[in-house]
Amino acid sequence: MCYKSNIAEWQFASDITDENERLKLEQSLVAARFEKEAWKNITSFNWQPFTDPDLKRKFKLLSVLGPSALPEDKLTQYRKSIDAMEKIYSTAKICSFANPGDCGMNLDPEITEKMSKSRNFDELKHVWQQWHEQSGGKMRHHYEKFVQLSNEAAQMNNFSDTGAYWLRNYESDTFKEDIEGLWQTIKPFYLQLHAYVRAKLRAHYGEDKVPKDQPIPAHLLGNMWAQSWGNIDDLVTPYPGKSSIDVTPEMLKQGYTPKKMFEMSEEFFTSMGLLPTPPEFWSGSIIEKLVGKEMVCHASAWDFCNGKDFRIKQCTKVNMEDFIVVHHEMGHIQYFLQYKNLPLVYREGANSGFHEAVGDSLALSVQTTKHLKEIGLLDKSTPTDHEATINYLLATALDKIAFFPFAYIMDKWRWDVFDGSVTSADYNCHWWKLREEYQGIRSPVTRSEVDFDPGAKYHIAANVEYIRYFVSFVIQFQFYKSLCVTAGQYDPHNPSQPLHECDFYRNKEAGAKLGAMLAMGSSRPWPEAMRAVTGQDRMDANAFREYFKPLEVWLIAKNKELGEPVGWNSGGLNCQKNPPPTSTTQHPPPVTQPVGPKSGGPTVFLPHGAWILVAFYSLLNLVV
Ligand code: BJ2
Ligand code: ZN
């Protein structure tokens, strides 16, 4: 059943047509009937008093049914709302800034490339705004429906809401507090990075565009969502002309292909004694964008549950960023391979964050100057002195540190939506409140509740929980550090062997250690899996701090020297409930009478008839 469902989903994701959408839905209903039946069998046992811990764990995991608990008509609506959002996201197109008549720009590759390479303020703003309009802007009503049904499903599974349902995966009563604690540890460092980057952007774009003590305009950070900032390394690098780890030009010069990138990633895994991918991986995967088809280009890794078929779907471009994504996805495949012989119920990560961390931990080793020299992507004479080190760590921080507040708010926003503390009347402004408060960024254009900017990010449109990546970005440094110690590549007491220079390529001991953890799947609570590699049984930001220590010291000194303010003043949120009059969309006449959210419910007085407006636009969207 798992195989059949995956095939139907793959078919849709790699060839978005109405027919494939229908077949996927049909199969998901068949699977739901089966799951419900299995769930009835499981829960007919009084398993709580079982004394065999393994048997009890299996029953516990299997006793949560998930969305299949919904009655079939509602399950159909639930699936349809997610499919509709994923389709909108994956097929959205915008018009070019330079050639307004060219309206065939896709997120992948054209828009992504513009966001990363353009340094034209107005062009970036145009692309940013258009993307948000064409993706998130078209899915608000689907999201509202989705939230309602998803919560209904969670409640049928005895969870208070979808947020609580998601958190079960982490098997901890203190998970949210632990995440907040980690964020508090990382935050001072983030603020320093933010201040430094803002100063550099101000120098490039001017004080009027990037004011000194304000949030950074969200479209200037090299990435549509301002989630990782590595693409603006050229603008912010501390010692220009010194050395750069962006080996994209070299990859292009050497004629790298997507295939070669995947082969090299696989070779890194096998060099550590980890498992090779089977032939089915190479014949089944899609590693380049298909011509003449609409597809979900967002990269993903798939386990078809039959122990043979594992695939990646990625519209791979030949550049360093995608080279790292290749390793990320190959990390998922390695996990799938390692636990393929476990019972199906245990073929999951120790928790979702573990699954995300595997490839990234290895990629930290791949991207070291040492390794890039070894594989011929970096000149052997590239220095590793203090200035080069700061350049290297800053480039890495742009991806790894900038990411934390983004990863946090992705689910903070959804936790607030799911538990009802934020309703659809505040979806978008709440999003921007969090964006400003945590990331210190601001929308380049005034937003309103007609927009739905969270939906402009894949995981919200496709309903993928996100805190897993926050967890991953913490624990990947714990894994990296431990594997480095195992490989004899890191000694905390030896300054000539700093953590960021560790490369465990070809190290079988490190590979064996990691492999043993992966082979556990989800058969044991995650602290045990973590202990197998790190000797620790909790998430800990210390490895991370250790890795970046020289940069943290440098940034603090640099910001002081520049007299840069750290942090930002709000100066008012750039989001209004109602659309601003200057907006290009047409608006209905304002309605001012009080409106109740539901008939029979309490009458709520909302300013400027917000409810009516939101409802009107939802309807309009639906019709369009
Ligand atoms: C590029 C990457 C995801 C991933 C895809 C899409 C959603 C889930 C899977 C799962 C894996 C599994 C991604 C990378 C870091 C930050 C984040 C982002 N795509 N997924 N089937 N990333 O995690 O690989 O492949 O657990 O089975 O979204 O925001 O880009
Ligand atoms: Zn992943």
From TrEMBL:
GO terms for molecular function: carboxypeptidase activity; metal ion binding; metallopeptidase activity; peptidyl-dipeptidase activity. One of its GO terms (cellular component) is plasma membrane. Chloride binds at Y170, R468. Zn(2+) 2 binds at H328, H332, E356. GO terms for biological process: proteolysis. The keyword Iron-sulfur does not apply. It catalyses: Release of a C-terminal dipeptide, oligopeptide-|-Xaa-Yaa, when Xaa is not Pro, and Yaa is neither Asp nor Glu. Thus, conversion of angiotensin I to angiotensin II, with increase in vasoconstrictor activity, but no action on angiotensin II. It comes from the Eukaryota. Its cofactor is Zn(2+). Zn(2+) 1 binds at H328, H332, E356. The active site is at E329, H459. Pfam families: Peptidase_M2. Disulfide bonds join C95-C103, C297-C315, C484-C502. Its EC number is 3.4.-.-. The keyword Disulfide bond applies. Residues 578-592 have a biased composition (Pro residues). Residues 568-600 are annotated as: Disordered. Binds 1 zinc ion per subunit. PROSITE patterns: PEPTIDASE_M2. Belongs to the peptidase M2 family. This is Angiotensin-converting enzyme. It comes from Daphnia pulex.
